[in-house]
Write a structure and sequence with these properties.
289 residues, alpha+beta, Jelly Rolls, eight-stranded antiparallel sheet, 7 helices, 14 strands, 20% helix, binds 2-oxoglutaric acid
Amino acid sequence: MIDDRAVAQYREHGFVIIPDVLEAAELAEANRRVAAILAGARGLTGHTEVYDLEPDHQPDAPRVRRIKVPHRHDPYFRALAGSDRLVSILRRLLGTEAVRLHGSKINMKGAHGGAPVEWHQDWAFYPHTNDDLLAVGVMLDDCTPENGAMLVLPGSHRGPVFDHHADGHFCGAMDVGALDLDLSRAVPCTGRAGSMSFHHVRAVHGSAQNLSAHPRALLLYEFAAADAWPLMGVKDLAEFDARLVCGAPTITPRLAPVPVRMPLPPAPHQGSIYENQSSARSRYFGRAA
Ligand SMILES: O=C(O)CCC(=O)C(=O)O
């Protein structure tokens, strides 16, 4: 599924797109499961453990921005994280035999207004003892520049770790207006539904509002080399080890000299990235009414 060229591209640019990883039946099943979860948002009046809602959500006209940790709510998404095809790609990109699932989410980005995500590095949210981590974007819809494909700044995974704080609290967004970054170089992760993007935990990325007529659902999985331990701690070792998708557990974290800024104190609106970023000092991506 992945050749040396794709691995080299990931190492150099900090991201790579592998087309058509999911078979048609797997994609259809994933989208059926998403639709079933979304049906549960009818009648809701606020965010829950499962749903993060768009500001214009109405109980009788649901608008879901994110399905939180789908691998916990539906075993299909847990199984997909450990599927042979995906695991073989993860082993190559992370350069290790043992890989652990860190988290998952589905950013729905509905047609005609699905929410943008401000520029950030995932590393700011979950620093580990080393930075052999990446996120996978499973395209559940075709992803295009028009419907808000995720944008990645090539090479940024080898650059600085940026501040994601505002007014003394974590906010999960970079203040790009105050930084000397050429964001016009950012590359959209586009592809047919069923394709996957892989981006390094330190790669700078974000995405614009979806003003098109086409929805853009992106299932995101975060993975870590098993010897990368979260600096925020491990509460339940059995649960931690149960998230391994391949290889053996270890209680010997590998310590690398990586720059870290803890995501503390927490955001005033601690929750999903959308809630965290609501306290950002500035916004890059437009928000049409
Ligand atoms: O949905 C997207 O386009 C980007 C998502 C992302 O970077 C995140 O949720 O951390």
